[in-house]
Design a protein that fits this description.
With 303 residues, the protein is of the alpha/beta class. It has 2 domains: 10-93, Winged helix-like DNA-binding domain superfamily/Winged helix DNA-binding domain (Arc Repressor Mutant, subunit A, Orthogonal Bundle), CATH 1.10.10.10; 98-302, 3-Layer(aba) Sandwich (D-Maltodextrin-Binding Protein, domain 2), CATH 3.40.190. Helices cover 43% and strands 23% of the residues. The protein has helices spanning 10-22, 25-32, 36-50, 66-94, 104-121, 197-202, 211-218, 233-241, 251-260, 289-302, and strands at residues 55-58, 61-64, 96-102, 125-131, 143-147, 155-169, 191-194, 227-230, 246-250, 264-266, 272-282. A hairpin with a 2-residue loop joins strand 1 and strand 2. The longest helix is centred in the first third of the chain and has 29 residues, at 66-94. The N and C termini lie far apart (72 Å).
């Protein structure tokens, strides 16, 4: 038997695998979209390199030789591994990244818990969340989910959802002496608030309601209340969940906590409207397929 010093041609091995499967050069030729003569020639070249026959050529019939039988499974296994590796490489090469600018609190309390559905529907898109307080300049972001929207002729803005602002507390606070049966009960609780209103005011979009606004809305003097101020809205909600006090909440951010019963809305009819949220991206990005897919998905869940 001849020693094989050079790698065998992969194309010829693939032709052998298909011909061995069908035991027919004509059927192999049809599957490979080449001529029967080309199949026969590739098998002859492979046999010459190997130093032994792979097929017994009978009258109108092919039969694997003993060596052909011994080679069939190893060749099939090797080709399957190569095809599997190539398929994985192909899938990875097709993956692309969509970078989303979003407020940290909105990312934590709303977007991230819902991204599982998007990832299942679009496994070829990798999401990169760029959570920050400022408005996006779109140099490093493909799109933005923004709180409010300031008109810009270069930007496409799609309204996503309305939002109310109201007061919430842990159910634990409803069991005490000052359980919010009266508006004046608020005077006996710590007031929790975030400190990012200056950001929105600086951009001229929205001056976020604060405790002074709710004091006027409720007609309750809360100047002597203890206060707890945190830098992010999701931290405010977490403090409220642990019964640290009463929080000003945004309906979108607090929806899951209300549904789970970790927080309850107090003073049901005392609500302040906010500008809501918009999906924003440069008009020059309108043909970006990833943006189109994300836009379709996010609009569907907001409806």
């Amino acid at each position: 038997m001849r020693m094989i010093n050079k790698p065998l041609p992969l194309n010829n091995l693939n032709t052998f695998s298909i011909a061995a499967k069908h035991l027919s050069f004509s059927k192999a030729a049809k599957e490979l979209s080449i001529t029967q003569a080309a199949v026969s020639q590739q098998i002859r070249l492979l046999e010459r390199r190997l130093g032994f026959d792979l097929f017994d050529r009978l009258h109108r019939q092919l039969k694997l030789t003993e060596q052909g039988v011994a080679l069939q499974n190893p060749v099939n296994s090797a080709l399957d591994k190569i095809n599997s590796a190539l398929e994985k490489l192909s899938k990875n090469s097709k993956k692309s990244v969509l970078t989303i600018s979003i407020l940290p609190s909105l990312a934590t309390k709303w977007l991230i818990p819902r991204l599982t559905d998007f990832n299942k529907e679009y496994p070829d898109i990798d999401i990169h969340i760029n959570a920050h307080l400022g408005l996006s300049d779109f140099k490093n972001n493909d799109l933005s989910i923004s709180f409010g929207h300031q008109y810009n002729p270069d930007l496409e803005a799609k309204f996503l959802m309305d939002e109310d602002m109201f007061l919430v507390a842990s159910p634990k606070l409803l069991t005490g002496k000052y359980n919010f049966d009266k508006l004046s009960d608020l005077q006996h609780h710590t007031l929790i608030h975030d400190s990012i209103d200056c950001i929105f005011e600086a951009y001229g979009i929205f001056i976020e309601p604060n405790w002074d606004d709710f004091s006027k809305l409720l007609d309750v003097d809360i100047r002597n209340n203890k206060a707890l101020t945190l830098s992010q809205s999701h931290l405010v909600l977490q403090a409220a969940i642990t019964a640290q006090g009463v929080a000003i909440a945004r309906s979108i951010l607090v929806a899951d906590d209300l549904a789970s019963g970790q927080l309850v809305k107090i003073y049901q009819n005392k609500v302040i409207k906010s500008p809501g949220y918009h999906l924003v991206y440069p008009k020059s990005h309108s043909n970006n397929k990833n943006i189109q897919k994300f836009e379709q998905w996010v609009l569907s869940i907001c409806r």
